[in-house]
Amino acid sequence: MAASDRSNTGWQRDLSVSYIKIGDVLVRQRKFDEALKCYRESLAILERLGTSDRSSTGWQRDLSVSYERIGEVREAQGKLDEALKGYQDTLTIRERLAAYDLSNAGWQYDLSVSYERFGDVLMKQDKPDQALKSYRRDGLAIRERLAASDRSNTGWQNDFQYSIGRMGKLAYRFILDRSFASALEASDLVISLAPDTILLRTKRAHALMLLDRVDEARALYLRYRGEKYAQDGRTWETVVLEDFAQLREAGVTHPLMDEIKARFSAGG
Q1: Is 199 left (phi over 0), alpha (psi -120 to 50) or beta?
Q2: What is the pLDDT averaged over residues 194-222?
Q3: Which among 83, 58, 57, 56 is positioned nearest to 68, based on CA atoms?
Q4: Less Cβ crowding at N or C end of the chain, within 10 Å?
Q5: Which residue segments constitute the domains of the chain, with CATH numbers given?
Q6: Whole-number Cα distances in Å, 49 to 13, 93, 98, 130, 219
Q7: pLDDT tens across 108-117, in order?
Q8: Can you tell me the distance from the alpha carbon of 4 to that of 124, in angstroms, rounded to the nearest whole number?
Q9: Which residues 6+ apart lie within 8 Å of 91 measured at CB?
Q10: How far, in Å, CA of 241 to CA of 235, rounded?
Q11: pTM for the complete prediction?
């Protein structure tokens, strides 16, 4: 059908969707080279459609999906530079769509996904500082706004919590890498958006301690004694001391650790 009438844009788009769906199945079968071929066939069609009418937001959105799929395959193959290229092409389109209609929650969500995936690849490339820039380029803020706009949307709520957890891991990664200022920046960013998430404050306390802002760190360590985490029921003290053990194992130490451990043990 598509070959019989290349001017029929509906048939052309249908064909591109078929390539995407076949590619998705091939990815599940881990046949990445074959999947990539399908995604590129889809991309070629959508690039023609997108070029013919740049005002069509639907085609632009479809085009971003093809770029994203190619990025996903390249990431799965470990070809991270090519994955970044695919995600950057996706991001460029989605930034434009999101700016075009700030009220379109779907486009805003798509944009947050692009920021996140771009940052994930940078983390795999051992570039946590650049990853932080990507994560904080409104991606986390978008997730927070979407979650706040509809408390009944469990998908958006879960995505926001997942992003919060990712930022907490990133802050801890900075601590282990001895990038303490970046750890504090990551902690402060996520706490500003999720002030009730106590777990993240352990990372902030560690960063303050290792930046030798000892009085602030001590006050924070002692402030939340007895608090429990909803996720697993562990106490604040347990989490802090577990972190201390891991930090010592990594060669990251500070005299305040012994003081806090003693005060937790004494209950004072």
Answers
A1: alpha
A2: 93
A3: 83
A4: C
A5: 1-125 (1.25.40.10), 132-268 (1.25.40)
A6: 8, 14, 20, 34, 60
A7: 999 999 999 9
A8: 45
A9: 111, 114, 115, 118
A10: 10
A11: 0.82
